[in-house]
Amino acid sequence: MSSTDTAPARNDGDTAEVGAGLDALDSVAAQRSSLGEVLRTKALPPLIGVLVVLALWQGAYSLHLTSSYKLPSPADVWRSLQDLWYQGTLFSIIWTSVWRGLSGFLLAVVIGTPIGLVVARVGPVRTAIGPVLQGLQSLPSVAWVPAAVIWLGINDSMMYAVILLGAVPSIANGLVAGIDQVPPLFLRAGRTLGATGLTGARHVLIPAALPGYLAGLKQGWAFSWRSLMAAELVASSPDLGRGLGRFLEDQREFSDMSGVLLGIVLILFVGIAIELLVFTPVERRVLRDRGLLASTK
Amino acid sequence: MTPALTTEADAPVLDSDGGAPAVRISHVHKSFGRPGAQTHVLDDITLDVAPGEFVTLLGASGCGKSTLLNLVAGLDKPSRGSIEVPGGRPALMFQEHALFPWLTAGKNIELALKLAGVPRPERRAEAERLLELVRLGGAYGKRVHELSGGMRQRVAMARALAQGSKVLLMDEPFAALDAITRDVLHDEITRIWAERQLSVLFVTHNVREAVRLAQRVVLLSSRPGRVAREWRIDLPQPRRIESSGVADLSIEITEELRGEIRRHVQH
Description:
- The complex is a heterodimer.
- In chain A, 77% of the residues lie in helices and 0% in strands.
- By secondary structure, chain A is mainly alpha-helical.
- The longest helix of chain A is centred in the C-terminal third of the chain and has 38 residues, at 197-234.
- The mean pLDDT of chain A is 86.
- Chain B is of the alpha/beta class.
- Chain B has two domains: 20-90 and 166-267, Rossmann fold (3-Layer(aba) Sandwich), CATH 3.40.50; 101-164, no CATH class.
- In chain B, 36% of the residues lie in helices and 22% in strands.
- Chain B has eight helices and nine strands.
- In chain B, strand 1 (23-32) and strand 2 form a beta hairpin.
- In chain B, helix 4 crosses helix 5.
- Classes of the chains: A mainly alpha, B alpha/beta.
- At the A-B interface, helix 1, helix 8 and helix 9 of A face helix 3, helix 5, helix 6 and helix 8 of B.
- Chain B: This is ABC transporter ATP-binding protein.
């Protein structure tokens, strides 16, 4: 077969230029928005939301919809906060709970992660305890409080036990879900490159499962915090440090509604603050690097 | 590495019985499923790829071409027969780029270098060199999602080359690309094949692509996959996919391929 081609030959430089042109036409440049725009689009709407809630609250108070001991004004709650501040107990109350919550959560990560790995990768283990692990997620952890009190007494161990029972299943399940969603193509590509066994887990499986794992961690924190508040509310003992849940229950005993509302607001505030300060930045970073955030288009 | 060679390089068609082959596939059978209810996918495939040879495997769906490539890559074992790749684990490129989205383009290549045992201090420079080779010099720090489809396949090519193997297996690597990008990448793979003296086993269902690229086209029949016919192609490289030489041979091969497919109507 001899060449009877009429098509002119192409030179290498031509191909290079066409290739570069295509690359320029096709690639998407990631755009970062300016600080002003971020403030306007991300910070302003929630701020307005909070102001609207405060306005409705103040309106309900001013209209005397119910007696003021049942519904104190936002200013009353603000005064309760100031009292706590001047007593010098505000930070110790918050810190007691945050310390318990975070250290319990970290312990739950240390325990839940290997459980998740084993359940995800070992078939018989998955069949045996996978459904139980999922079912445990729908059990409100406050249900564990009476059992924990009988087993361990009213002390810090009991608090940690309740946190672990609440958070470990959701962390383990998050990891299982993350691993299940890893595209098989990545594992094949990893094996072709020579990443098998532990090397494969380290360089391919775990990084690929990271988004699901992070979602599990975030939910694990929410569960830790809720479980802890339930435990603090129910368990009362002078030996225990006074946390937010205890503060809330104390104010109820004094029938101090503005103190109760303050307690609720503080619990909510801490929960949201930890999520925004710790989890959201990490999650955003991971998703943005992978092009999974809408804002990077 | 002498880039000047590449454009006019009419890479030598090697004598297939001279010296050890880069890939030797001898009497390979592959079946899936339980004994008794087995699907016979590959039937007595014997095929050598000589060092520096570019072979395309052509066939319709169900001919087991991807299965065969997986066997050569060592991702699966043949039911019978043997496969030898004397140069060690071959590199494999997929239809999807399969780049890891948690790493930058450069780090994807460095991971392959690391797994191939390249010492840390040399990895960065080698990754940059490979990116230059696929003409993506500035893409080291780019994330996968920032690259176009064609650029991703180039990075995937660089990552495959980073494994250091002289044998490159390609499983329809350009099938998901638009025709213009595919045309450019045909030129590029031809250039890199000659420059690096690779032995390539390239799977496709696109007859013109097979003729455009290969020194030898191997047609597989379907269900079970058997070697139906082979063509040796002596047109000079780089060829153009729209040239008359490529078109003429494509017509001949397409007729044969259609004949193979027609055989299945009766069954």
